[in-house]
Each structure stands twice: as structure tokens, then as C-alpha cells.
Fold Transcriptional regulator.
Amino acid sequence: MRARIEDVAVAAGVSMKTVSRVMNGEANVREGTRLRVTAAMEKLNYRPDPSARRLAGQRSYEIVLAYNNPSRNYLMDVVTGVLAASRSCHYNLVLSPISSPRDIDEIFVHAHPDGAVLTPPLTDDPVVIAALERHQLPYSCLSPLDRIARIGAYIDDVAAARSLVLELAALGHRRIGHICGAKGHGAREWRLAGYKQALKEVGLPYDRSLVVSGEFLFESGVDGARTLLGLKQPPTAIFAANDDTAAGVLRTAAELGLRVPHDLSVCGFDDTPVASQILPALTTVQQPITEMARIATLQLIDRIRDPKAGAMEQVDYRLIQRESVGPAP
Amino acid sequence: MRARIEDVAVAAGVSMKTVSRVMNGEANVREGTRLRVTAAMEKLNYRPDPSARRLAGQRSYEIVLAYNNPSRNYLMDVVTGVLAASRSCHYNLVLSPISSPRDIDEIFVHAHPDGAVLTPPLTDDPVVIAALERHQLPYSCLSPLDRIARIGAYIDDVAAARSLVLELAALGHRRIGHICGAKGHGAREWRLAGYKQALKEVGLPYDRSLVVSGEFLFESGVDGARTLLGLKQPPTAIFAANDDTAAGVLRTAAELGLRVPHDLSVCGFDDTPVASQILPALTTVQQPITEMARIATLQLIDRIRDPKAGAMEQVDYRLIQRESVGPAP
DNA sequence: CTGAAAGCGCTTACAG
DNA sequence: CTGAAAGCGCTTACAG
């Protein structure tokens, strides 16, 4: 039979309350007592009953992962990270797909979470944020626009995009196109900013006709490349806001009979599986998504335990050089 | 403040126990009483406290989704379906990645689920199944090898594969290659069986040299196509066990300078996003994965409530004809 | 630094 | 067909 807190208390020769104190890392337990209790927990292989904790403590020990419509690859990596961090702290993960911003209130019907992890673009949705504030729910963000007021994790998208474009310039490209990400995503703004910054550094003009809108989709790349490559003076390189978009660019290039990288250089962002599978393989930027999610979740748990704790942490990205980038023709 | 069962009881003029009966769909409640209670629940917007139910009932109302390493696209579709079904029945979803079959016991450390949904190939892993039986945990399967003894949902993979190959034969192909799926997956056996069956029906010989092993991966397609297209008498069509594999075939074909479908016809299976994004778009088979997951979860919940309930349901697939298949050269 | 009592919101026997 | 009591395994005040 499963050991209960009472069994541990008897085995350690203390009261239930003391076991509870040790279990929850509370202060005011003598070191010797603590050791006797942990030994008893160990020996009995004690695991607190989650339901009893929740009921008595009036807390759920649940963390909601709220997401709307990011790529599946991204989301699965996030899930892995959140799961790892929440389990290590005896929290449970509840998945909450959010189809409309108003759905955010649904969360509080299905569950009574102690906190939430948000993925972009929910991180920057005023309706979502307002709802969380109203419910006074602690939350943590992956790559939010606002890095000052939030806790969570992010990479320096601006610097990453800048390096990519600087590399293109170093290979002699003078007309470098950019297909933007979806509006409302921080990643759109940062990657565009990195693009502009790199141009300025190498003394290239910022030509608005070389920048087209997009949605982070394959189709964005197809359409964007048609526009860019149909210009009187088409670019010799295209920096796509993500790998899916870059894959679309490759498709259009193939349709137009352009060889990559001989006639056109292309780079993406994210290093999703398609980046290494497509022909030619994409030069891109790798984000440690699982690690970011893990860190953001740990920050959240810190904040749940102490409203003043938790921080916004920057993690490192990595440039992945493959075959889709070459010297300017 | 949140309504409790006691509040509902007072409002309806009955005891807590009667409210509990109505809530759990138990028998022996007079119709008039039932109506008064449901009206009171409605009016107070009553939601039972999950933790209290779990603690008192000694059940978790949790359903584990156990998965090891299927494709992310597949898994996200499964998650969507399981989530929909479990929520509609007031069950919670707990994700359980299983890296090694022995990890299955971990499930019972982190949670005390009322049931489990299994994805392939866990569905056919003797170690996993034995552990579930030992813990006497009800479980439901997606596309298990054994359709007789299990409950869950499946499509007729054999028939789907057969149609694909029959279509190739109808277009004049006489040498049709097959790159198999991973060992231990029912899908491997069924798709191979459908391939063989179609050949037999149209009077083509089964040539072992035209069938190569694979792992459902992009790389399987690259390697498999190199082998097949390097034969003295190479096939004019290749049926890949899934879309990722087919994408690999397309890559190798491009490297060898073969045009698809002019020089080589290719078809996949699953209709993942890559199938419509790759050039040329893949002829393939669409499985309603989300719907299958929803059905399998409902069957599981039936079985949780009654050990004799629950069934194995067949759902329909759909042939998707795109551009990767054409007449034999 | 430690403990005895009450209570979280339900369900489970049991009684009628 | 319905209800009063006990109990699920913890935590929260409160007391010492």
C-alpha cells in the first residue's frame, strides 16, 4: 500500500505537520529532524498525494501551457521543456489551446492553474495579458516583445538576424531581400531590425521594395519570392523570417529555374527538420527551444512561490551554415 | 465565490449525496429531483472541484497519453483529439513521453491515471502492455497490430496501400518499388501487405529486390531510393511507407537528375504538411488522426466506467491525388 | 522549533 | 428513491 504522510510521521517520530514542513521546504525545522524525516520518506518511498495537497492547500499545482497556432515542431519542443521543468518541481502540465484571445478565460473553467507559460504571439496579446492580470495568475513568457516587465526566456533575435545578413553581405550580395514574419510576433520585428541593422553597418541602402510581408508560412515564401524575384532588379539573396518561409522561397526559385545558391542565396531561421531535409539544406539559426521552455517554466515556479522572484533570461542561439548560401552571382 | 456541492444541495432542497448522484449519472434519482438539481447546478454555475472528487473517490480522472517517438505532426493531431474527448467527459490529459519501454512504470510514479491512450509502436510493445495489465490500467490504442483484443481506432492501411499501388499499375507501371516503414509498427506490415496484394491482383510478380527496409524517416527515403534507382532495372514508381520517406525519395531523384513524375512516380502516406509543400506535391493517403484519437479516447472512457465496454472502431481514410504520380515512362 | 485540531469538497459505505 | 455520517490525505491557522 502507498505510504501516507502519517506513516512517514510515525516512522520519523514526529507529527504530520513537521513532515509537511520538510516536504514543502519551509523554515523552522531542526536539521536533525529534517534528516530523520527525509530518511523516513526515502525508506517508505513516500510520494505526497497530489489531490490531497490541492484540496487542503487550495492550490492546483498545475501549470497551463497556453498556445494558439505556432508550428507543431516549435510546440512539441516547448512541451518537452515545460514538462521537464514542471515535473522536477512536482507540478503538472495542462495544455490549453487558445483559438481566440477570449478563450483565455476558458482556462479558468477547466482548471485552476497556479501559473501559465505563454508562447508567442499570446505573449503580446493585450486581451490575454489583461485576463491573466485580472485573475492574478503568475505567468512566464517565451520571447515576448516586452522583455522588461516579463519573466521567461528569449534569444537575441536581432543579433542572430544581423549575423545572417552580414554573412550574405560578406559574400558580395548587394541586393538582399527579406520576407517578414507575421504581424504581432516579436520575432517579426526583431528579425527585421537585425536585417536593417546589418545593412546599415555594411553601408547598404535600406530599399523598401526588397522587404515584403509574410506570415511565417511556406506560402509566404512562395508569394514573397515571386514578388521579389519579379522585380526589375531582383535580389541575389533572400533572408526569410523562418525556415518554412525559406522552403517556400526554394520552391519558387525552382519553378523559375533559379539554382540555389548559384543564382540565389537563401537563409531561414529556426532550424526545424525541414531545414536539413530540403535541397539545398538551409543556412539558418538554431534556437534551443526546449531549454528556453524549461528555463521559462522554472522562472514561473519561482514566481508562484514568491511574487517577487523570477527573471527574464537570455539563452544562446547558434548559426547553422549549410548549402543554401553562396557568393553573389 | 465558487459554488460547492453543499450550496447546490441547499438550493435544490436535497442532500449532498443526491447532488452527487445526479452529477455522476447514477441511477435511483426521481426525474423531478434530477431536474431540480440540474437547475440548481446551472443557476449556481456549479463545477465540481476536481481535487475533492479525486481524493474522495480515490480516482484521478486523469488519462495518460503515452508516446515514444512518432512524428511531431502525428502527435500534435493526436493530442488535439485526446484533449477534446477527455475534456468533454471531465477527464484531464497527462502527457507521458516514454523513451524506453521500462519508463512505462514511471507513469505510475508521476500520476495515478484512470486509463491510458497508446500511440504506435507502444501499442505493440509487450513490455508496455504487460506493465499496463499488471497495473490493471484500462488502455486504448491507435492503430495497434492486434485489433481483436484491443479497443481504440484504426484505418484500413492495407486497403489504402493497395489503392495507391493499383493506381500506379493502372498508369502502366510494371516495376513498382516499396520502401518499408519501421519494424515493430503495424503500419509497416499493413502497407507492405497492401503493396503485395495489389501486385498480385494485377498479375505483377513480387520482386524482393524492389522492396527495401526503412524507418519512416526522410533518410530512409534518401537511402532507399539510392538502392532502388541504382538497380540494373530500376523501378519507374516508388511507394514510400510515409510522406517523410517520400520526401527523401524526391531528394535522391533530384540529385540523380530524374524528373518526378516524368521519369519516376512517387507516392507517400499520411498527408503531413510536407506532402503539399514539397515539389512536386505528393500523392498520398490522409488519415483523420485527430478524429481517431478522439474516438479512441471515448472508447477508453467507456471502458473506465465499465470494464466490459469499449470497442475497436474503423474510420475512413482518403486518397489525395497530387502531382507526384504520372504515367509510366 | 514542534504539534493537535479543524477543515478543504467531494464520495463511499451504510441505513432507511 | 433519499440522507446522515465518516473519511479520502493533505494544509492551514493557532497554540505552545
